[in-house]
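Q: My labmate handed me this sequence with no annotations at all. I'd like to see what the chain might look like in three dimensions before we decide whether it's worth expressing. Could you predict it?
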Amino acid sequence: MEIKVDGSPKIAIIGTGYVGLSTALILAKQGCGVYCTDVDRQKVDSLEKGISPVYEPGFEELLQDMKQAGRLHPTTDIQGAIAASSISFICVGTPSKEDSSIDLSYIVNAANMIGKALANKDGYHLVVVKSTVVPTTTKKLVLPELEKASGKKAGKDFGVSMNPEFLREGSALQDAQEPDRIVIGEMDEGAGAVLAKLYEQYDCPVLHTDLDTAEMIKYTSNSFLATKISFANEIGNICEGFGIDVYEVMKGVGLDSRISPQFLRAGAGWGGSCFPKDVMALVAAARENGTDPILLSKVLEQNQVQPLRLIDLATKALGDLAGKRIAVLGLAFKPDTDDVRHTRALPLIRGLLDKGVMVSAYDPKASENFKLLLDEEERSIIIFTNTALDALDGAEACIIQTEWQEFRDFSPKDLVSAMARPVVVDGRRTLDPVRFINGGVKYLGIGWKND
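A: Here is what I predict for the chain of 451 residues:
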């Protein structure tokens, strides 16, 4: 299990999900020896074969390169990996519970395993929490568990840091290699200095904070971006009533240097592994502390109803939807990923089924994952196709839920020739409205004039 690396530290990554694997690959690429650990034997076996358990552009190629270079070793021997390394990153999941707060049991279990390994380890070891956790988690849960399981003292025998990730699914490797900032939450200056040394090659601002502040920065960043998208979506809904193109509006708004054009694309709503979970968790944590987060509660509410706008637009174009066939293109929450967590395709398709629609569905990467979200009856009703054109065949409308490049490459002729009625409801401004209208397609979309 020994990884031989000259001049760079050896690192143990605990958890091989999206964050863990991204972190492992980038650290290995920069020259570190990385033990990529997980309790899930199936994931580890997949990694050992050079197969990424999650789809992300560049993951599989880099995984194979780093294994071949001898800098990445997948293993279920977590304690052995910690014993052989000088830094451990906790990258386990923090899923939502039924009350919208986050489940910290995986975090505590990881801290317990690391602590047990540290009990028999000589020398200083840095433990870094990279999982997204609510403020005070590292200080009040992780640190005491490490001390309890190891019998050692934090700050003396080992260090503790909180290092939030700011990765976007679909561009994780680029974001990890070219970060716009690095936040180092430190229990003490010694722990922060070790982590700063690991990141010294990056040319970006490095902010040193306490542990709680680093945790809050992550939640605040995601909550702000989710709010910005929901604001754009609401303005898009308003623009429809005035017959105004919201994308032209946001082009002008985004020229303001105080605002920027990022995250102002109106559409069907936001999903994924971060925004929904993090906003819900912050709302739940705020209420537990006696604060009523009015704005963030409304942000969540707006995002729940936004995908149903697409059904309203389809009804505007077709009338009663019962018995009609509608193609839904895009099941992942965004392009270039197979992640379907909180995808807006789920409430959209369930809303269509409730209206008696015959749904055909297609996604380049996420169809199998999406099927896991459905019950047996839903899976039996929905027609999943192998190509977009198969989904469009005979459809009286198509709804674009995810802006995959292959949908952007459509021509008006593609829709006119494949569909029973060339009606497109565009949830992401994937297509050029004027071009498709001039090509004989009835185009409707979020924040479009929709005459």
